[in-house]
Specification:
The protein has about 200 residues and is mostly helical. It has helices spanning about 1-30, 35-50, 55-65, 70-80, 85-100, 105-115, 120-135, 135-150, 155-165, 175-185, 190-195. Helix 7 packs antiparallel against helix 8 (about 135-150). It comes from Marivirga salinarum.
Length: about 200
């Protein structure tokens, strides 16, 4: 009986270590941009732990990177089912709608993420962008302001708030674009040169 217990203990340790190694391997593949190998490793990990929230989410992001959006969405929805407070899953699910130019549904998902963490500058920025694209100008401006108040280095929010101010003939648009330019946001130089010189 004693030997059986020891054998069982070592078997559990072995499977646990292998499982952890597979997850680490999957994350390394993901970080190096080898998304197909990452997916294979996430799948192996999920055979052992089918409800592992982080592995499912990361696999969804890997599917997204290789353009398999239907599989990505399934993973994001599975994560939300496991943990309805997973901000990343709502943001990723919302980005799918955004990519499809369904800006109202994108905003709906981004708003869920924002409500879970009102300090999330990423959620506020994405929500502002979705409202901006949907033509909901007042809401877009509101959330650009929130994003900037949450993070004074948020170049994306400065750039698009500046562009919106220029469109609305409001003052301060060029100042916002200049700020985005100073922070180093790609494209800010061209926008500044075109509209503010």
């Amino acid at each position: 009986m004693k030997y059986l217990s020891i054998l069982l203990f070592f078997s559990i340790c072995l499977f646990s270590c292998e499982d952890k190694d597979e997850l680490e391997k999957a994350n390394q593949y993901y970080n190096s941009g080898d998304y197909k190998k990452a997916i294979q490793s996430y799948n192996k990990h999920l055979e052992m732990k089918p409800a592992h929230e982080i592995a499912i989410y990361n696999r969804g992001r890997a599917y997204e990177e290789i353009g398999q959006y239907d599989k990505a969405v399934k993973d994001f929805l599975k994560v939300i089912e496991i943990n309805p407070r997973n901000i990343g899953a709502y943001l990723s699910y919302g980005k799918n709608f955004y990519r499809e130019e369904d800006y109202e549904n994108a905003a709906f998902q981004f708003e869920k993420a924002y409500k879970l963490n009102t300090n999330s500058t990423k959620a506020a920025t994405l929500l502002a962008r979705a409202y901006h694209k949907a033509g909901m100008i007042d809401k877009a401006m509101e959330y650009y302001n929130i994003a900037i108040n949450n993070d004074r280095e948020n170049a994306e929010a400065f750039l698009y708030r500046g562009a919106l101010k220029l469109y609305l003939n409001q003052s301060g648009g060029c100042n916002d674009i200049q700020t985005a330019k100073n922070i180093g946001y790609e494209g800010a130089d061209d926008l500044y040169d075109e509209y503010c010189k």
